[in-house]
Amino acid sequence: MPSRIVTLTVNDADHELIATPGLTLLAALRDALGLTAAKRGCAQGTCGSCVVLLDERAVPACLVPVETVDGAAVRTLEGVAAGGELDEVQSAFLDGFATQCGFCTSGMIMAAEALLADNPSPSRQDVVEAISGNVCRCTGYEPIVAAVLDAARRRAGRTA
Amino acid sequence: MAHRQTPIDDTYFAGERAGSFTVVGSPVARSDARGHVTGRTEFFEDVRPAGLLHLKMHRSARHHARLVTVDTAAARAVPGVVAVLTHQDIPNNLYTPLKLIGVTPDDEPVLAVDKVRYLGEPIVAVVAETEAAALAGAAAVTVDYDDLPAVFDVEEALAEGAPLVNEYQGNNYFTYEGHHCRRVRFGDVDKAFAAADHVFEWRYQSSPIEQAPVETTGCVVVPQPDGRLRIHSDTQACFFTLDNTALILESEFNKLRIVGGTVGGGFGGKVDVVVEPVACVAAMVTHRPVKFVYGRYEEMQVSSPRAAERIYLKDGVSADGRILARQVRAYIDAGAYSRHTPYGTTKAAAHFPGPYAIPNVSIDCHCVFTNRTPSSAMRGFGVTIGDFALESQMDRIARALDLDPLRLRLINAYRDGDMKAHRKLAEGTALVEVIQKAADLVGHDLPEPYRSMSSTDRKGR
Amino acid sequence: MLSHVHLPGSAAEAADLLRNGGWLVGGGTVVMPRVNTGAVPVDSLVSLRRAGLDDITVDGRRASIGAAATLADVGEHDALAFLLPVIRSIASPPVRNLATVGGNLVVGQPYGDLAVALLALDARVEVLGADGVREVGVAELTVGGAEVLTAVHLDVPDSGTWFYRKAMRRRHNSAAIVTVAAVVAVGDGVVRQARIALGGLAPRPVRAPAAERVLLGQPFDRPTVEAAASAARQGVTPLDDAYASAWYRDRVLPVHVRRALLGED
C-alpha cells in the first residue's frame, strides 16, 4: 500500500503526516496529529460533528481523503482562539448554555465560525441554515442558535 | 448572563415550603462547558493508545435463522486481520444485563451460538490493524443460514403456534414470578364496569424509537502492565458495565477499570453493556489495545431502541366524568432478548393508572419477545408511551362526554394520601396545581370549584 | 481495501486510470461514506479535485459549469444567481462546499435536485470516455465505469421564466419529497415554451410532458396552472422511501407543481 506524505497547515502550523490510501482528513487530524476536537459521529457527512475549516470553508472532514488536499490550510476548534482565551463564539456558547453533552459542539462552533466570517450579522434564518448540517440531540438547537446570534453581536461590539 | 432565569411561583403550597429556593430557576455554569467549547473534553474515542487494533462485527443478515455453518477462513486471510472471535472465545457467553438486580434467566449470547434471533445480531468479531481491514475481514465471514419463521408483532407472538423466539425464556413472554405478565389488581373492575354509565375502550400503539446519540456506542480497551484492563467507554453506567463485563469475562471485578462519565449523548441507549465484553476479550487475546465502536448504521439498526408498545385502555366512567374503573392490557416489545424491557414493563404496570385516583384497576403488562432489535432503556422507558395512551384516553373521554379536558383531569386527579393501584401512598402530588397553573398560562377558563381544589385535601373530589 | 488514491491532472488522465477499475470521486459525499463504513470492492479512488474541471464560465446566456465545480461554487456565481434557491435546497453548507455538480447529476433520486433543475433547463452534459467526448441530455444520462462527466452546458433562462420548488420534511438539509423545476416562457399572452422537470418521483429526474402540453398555447393563469398541475401526475409512479410514501408523493405532486408555477409559499 503506497502511503503518501501529505503536508497540511493546521491552525497556522505546518505538519507532515503519512497518509494510508483513503485516510480521511478527520482521521489525519485526530489520529496522526492528535487534534481530537473534531468528532466522528457518522463518518458519512450527515451529523456535522467533524466540521472543520478547509481553506476557510466549512467541510465535514470525514468526507475528504486527505491525500486530495495536500498543501491545504485547515482550522480546527483547537485553533479558534489563541493563548487560552475564548473567542466570541466559544464564549457565547459557554455563557448561553449551548452545550450539553459537548459532542456536537466542535462542529457547531466551526460551522458558526464559517458563517460569521462570511456574514458578520446573520439573521436567525441564516444561522439555522448554517448549522442545518450539524446534529445536536441534547439542546433542541434553540440555545445554539441564540449563542451564534449572540456571538455575532459580541464580535460587532468588539470591532465597533 | 441571565439565561432562562425563571423565578419560582410561590403562590402554591405556601404553607409547605421553607427556605428561599435560589438555585432552582437560576443559571449555574456547567462544569464541563469550557472543555466542550475548546474541544478539550475527552470522549472515549479521543483516547488513542499506541498499537490500537480495531474490532468490527459480522452480523446476522436474517431476522430468525439457525446457523448451519460459520466460515471465518476468508476473514483470517484478509491482510491486517489479527484475530477472529466466535462464541467459543467468550468465557461466559450468555448474559442479561439485569442479572445484577435479580432478573433472570440469562437469555442473550454475546456472540451467536446456533441461532440468530434478530437482524444484525453479532456472530463473529474481527480484529485488525486498521479499521478498513477489520471491515474487510467482517465482510469476508460467510454464514449459511437455515431460515426460521419470524414474528414481528407482539400479539402475533403470543398467539397459538407462533414461532418460539427465545429458547432461554421458553415462551414468547417474560415470566414474572410464575405469571405470564406483570399484573396489578386493585378493587373490582368488573363490578365497576357494570355500574358505570359509560365504558370506553380504545387502542394505542407506538413504533420503536432510536435514541440516536451523535456519539455512537463504543469503547477502547487498553491492557495494563499489571494484567488489568482499562476500559474507556461511553457507557451511561460505569459500575453496571464493569460488573456485567466481569461476569461475562469470568474475571474478578478488580481486574477491570472503567474510565467513563463523558457520554456524547446517551438518552438510555448506552446502558446495555454490549461493546465492552467483546472488546475486552479481543484485548486479552491479542494483548493489545482494541477499539470497538458502532458505525452509524449499527447504531440505528442494532443498538436497542425504546420498545414498541400496543396498549388497550378500557375505562368505566360515570356521567359526571369520574373514572370508576380502568383496565389496561399492554404489550411491550422486548425484541429478541430481555435487556432492560422486563424492568420497563414493570415500571409501566406501576405507572398505568396514571396520576389519577381510580378505585378499581386491573393491569396486565406483557413483556413480549419478537424477532426485532432488542429494546431497552430510553428516557422514561415503560412510562412515556403509556402516558401518551393515558392522556389521549382522557382527551377522548372528555370529548365523548362533552366535558372540558382539564376539568375531567381535575375531578380525577390524585391527591396526597390516595392509595395508588400498586399500593403506594401518593404523597407530594401536584397535578391539581400544575393544571391550574397551565390553565392560567393559556387563558383557559376554570370555574371556582376547580380553582379551589388542592392536592393537599379532598375538596371537589 | 484501498491501495491507491489517484489525483489525475486532467479528465483524460482520470478516464485512463478508471480503465483499471476504481471509483471516481468528486466531492466525496457519496463515495466516502461507503469507504468509511464498509468493505470496499475496489482498490483505488480517482479524485477529480486536481483535474481542472471546476471552472464556471458564463458568456451572455451560455453557461458552462465544470463537473467538479462544487454546489457552493455554483451558488456563489453572480451570473447563475437564478440557481441559488436550488443550491440552498440541497444538503447543508458544509456538504455543499464539497459536493460537485457532476456528482449531483449521477446520484439517484430523491437526491440530485440540481439535476432536476438542469433537466428543466434542457442542459447538455459532456461525458469523456474511451471513444472521446459525447454530449447527452440529463434524462438520458448514464455514465459508464471508465467515463468521466466533464461539464454541463446550459442557457440562462430569461428573467421571469424560471420556477423552482422543493418540498421536503424540513426547511433545510433533507431529501426531496417532490422537486419541481420549470422554464415557462410567455409571449403574446400565452405560454410559448414549457419545460417542467420533477424530482423525488423516479430514480432519475423526469419531465412532465402532459403538464407541459396543458400549458402550451394557453394563458399562464391560475386555471391553466391548476390543470397542468393535475396533469403532472400522468405517467408518474413515485418513489416509496423513508422521506415519504409513494401515496403521499402522488397526492402532493400537483400541489407543489401549482405552488412552484404560481410562486406560492
TrEMBL record, chain A:
Keyword Disulfide bond in record: no
CDD domains per UniProt: fer2 (cd00207)
GO molecular function, one term: 2 iron, 2 sulfur cluster binding
Domain (2Fe-2S ferredoxin-type) ranges: 4-80
InterPro entries: 2Fe-2S-bd, 2Fe-2S-bd_dom_sf, 2Fe-2S_ferredoxin-like_sf, 2Fe-2S_ferredoxin-type, 2Fe2S_fd_BS, Beta-grasp_dom_sf, Diverse_Oxidoreductases
Keyword line: 2Fe-2S, Iron, Iron-sulfur, Metal-binding, Oxidoreductase
Domain of life: Bacteria
Name listed for the protein in its UniProt record: (2Fe-2S)-binding protein
Annotated organism of origin: Actinophytocola xinjiangensis
From TrEMBL, chain B:
Example GO molecular function: iron ion binding
Keywords: Molybdenum, Oxidoreductase
Presence of the UniProt keyword Transmembrane helix in the record: no
The keyword Oxidoreductase is assigned to this record: yes
Domain Aldehyde oxidase/xanthine dehydrogenase a/b hammerhead: 38-149
Protein name: Dehydrogenase
Organism: Actinophytocola xinjiangensis
